[in-house]
Amino acid sequence: MREFQLWEAGGLDDTFDEIGQLAEHCRFRDCCHESEPGCAVKQAIADGAMEAQRLSSFQKLKREIEYNDRRKDAAAQSELKKRWKRMHKAMRRTQE
Known about the structure:
The chain is mainly alpha-helical. It has one domain (about 10-95): Orthogonal Bundle (Ribonucleotide Reductase Protein R1, domain 1), CATH 1.10.40. The chain is built from five helices and no strands.
């Protein structure tokens, strides 16, 4: 077997249920568990209750699922392309 993919977000929640349980205690509802203050998941890693590799795997699979969803949805692809164009234009303006 070359790779394993979770095709639905529900599979991700079932696989990483401890992250979901910890996330309920984060300060912000939309916490990405990266650099937000009051992140319960990051605190669990700092306390040694969870391995950092576990969060890294969760984030990687989440990005992969989002990518697969965007590939299937033409409107989402178009919106993402427009977003990147806006960001590039803004960056070019700041460099002038």
